[in-house]
């Protein structure tokens, strides 16, 4: 495949293969440093929204493997405003060897891919966050190892871009997914239909509930994310009223499996969707998860270039 735009564009075997490459590159990095498999390659990084993890982990992934990265800020590019997306894609295809884009509209990342001659990686859109989903799966596999078949993954909170990629990767890997959202904040129905199609093939079980307590029953993973995603800031006051029953706190965690891990893509709004006590407690894997962005993305880039 030319691009990495959605986890659901890949088969279970392809996702498992990417995760195997990530494990190998992570081991190599800590044992002796990575080989310069990306030497002479530059990743152009288009950002329409802020970022800590995505920006730094992609930049460092390129550097660790002998390549380089170029940050292009919203003001510089003016995606679709100063210049058409099709023209930007065709110009950058002659300057850099791959593109990573963080956009508002998912159609914009698709349009970049359509017009680029080079691989395009989705670094988060309003629809999904596939690089996050890969790092999440890597973390879950590291924690549960060979016992990872049949795991129960529970997401509570806003049905958003991060949830879509978590649901798709989980369904592809045969994990059961329960999503607990308040009314009006459900997952994108198109993403749910895709997940249901995958689940039919892999035997994964998908459940959608309103009650956060029901959502975490028997959970091996509890996952949450911000109640207000980037671009929804004007809805913050309303969302702060709706979401408190979905807070991941010690009481909710105590209702899950005793060995449950707690995940969050970060940035976290502490004591809103996730309490300090849980974020810094024994079940939390949030920093391991953030660090795994680096390793998962190295695998994605290496596979797109055909060098791993
Ligand atoms: N999780 C994540 O994508 O973080 P950033 O927004 O900081 O990149
Ligand atoms: N759902 C969040 C994820 C941030 C990494 C957002 O889109 O803002």
Quick take:
The chain has helices at residues 12-32, 53-64, 74-77, 85-92, 106-115, 130-144, 161-172, 189-202, 212-216, 236-242, 250-254, 276-279, 286-305; strands at residues 42-47, 68-72, 98-102, 120-122, 152-156, 176-180, 206-209, 221-224, 261-264. The chain is of the alpha/beta class. A five-stranded parallel beta sheet has the order 7-6-5-8-9. A four-stranded parallel beta sheet has the order 2-1-3-4, with helices on both faces.
What is the residue-mean pLDDT, rounded to a whole number?
97
Give the terminus-to-terminus CA distance: 14 Å
CATH architecture of the largest domain: 3-Layer(aba) Sandwich
CATH topology descriptor of the largest domain:
Rossmann fold
The CATH class of the largest domain: Alpha Beta
Query: Taking Cα atoms only, what radius of gyration do you get, to the nearest Å?
Result: 19 Å
| Number of strand segments | 9
Unique bound compounds: phosphoric acid mono(formamide)ester, norvaline
State the strand order across the main sheet. Answer: 7-6-5-8-9
Separate helix tally? 13
């Amino acid at each position: 495949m030319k691009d990495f735009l959605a986890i659901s564009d890949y088969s279970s075997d392809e996702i498992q293969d990417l995760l195997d490459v990530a494990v190998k590159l992570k081991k190599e990095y800590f044992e002796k440093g990575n080989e310069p498999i990306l030497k002479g390659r530059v990743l152009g990084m288009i950002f329409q929204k802020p970022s800590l993890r995505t920006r730094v982990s992609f930049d460092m992934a390129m550097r660790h493997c002998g390549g380089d990265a170029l940050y292009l800020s919203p003001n510089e590019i003016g995606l679709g405003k100063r210049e058409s997306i099709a023209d930007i894609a065709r110009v950058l295809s002659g300057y850099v060897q791959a593109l990573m884009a963080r956009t508002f509209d998912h159609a914009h990342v698709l349009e970049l891919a359509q017009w680029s001659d080079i691989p395009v990686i989705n670094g988060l859109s309003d629809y999904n966050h596939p690089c996050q989903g890969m790092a999440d799966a890597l973390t879950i596999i590291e924690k549960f190892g060979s016992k990872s078949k049949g795991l129960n993954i529970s997401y509570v909170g806003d049905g958003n871009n991060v949830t879509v990629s978590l649901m798709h990767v989980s369904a592809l890997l045969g994990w059961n997914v329960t999503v607990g959202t308040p009314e009006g904040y459900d997952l994108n129905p198109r993403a749910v239909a895709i997940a249901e199609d995958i689940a039919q093939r892999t035997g994964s079980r998908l459940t959608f509930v309103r009650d956060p307590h029901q959502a975490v029953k028997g959970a091996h993973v509890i996952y949450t994310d911000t109640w207000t995603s980037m671009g929804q800031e004007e809805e913050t006051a309303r969302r702060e009223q709706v979401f408190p029953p979905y807070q991941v706190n010690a009481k909710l965690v105590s209702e899950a499996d005793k060995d449950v891990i707690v995940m969050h893509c970060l940035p976290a709004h502490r004591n809103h969707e996730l309490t300090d006590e849980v974020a810094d407690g024994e079940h939390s894997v949030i920093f391991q998860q953030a660090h795994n962005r680096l390793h998962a993305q190295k695998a994605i880039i290496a596979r797109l270039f055909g060098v791993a």
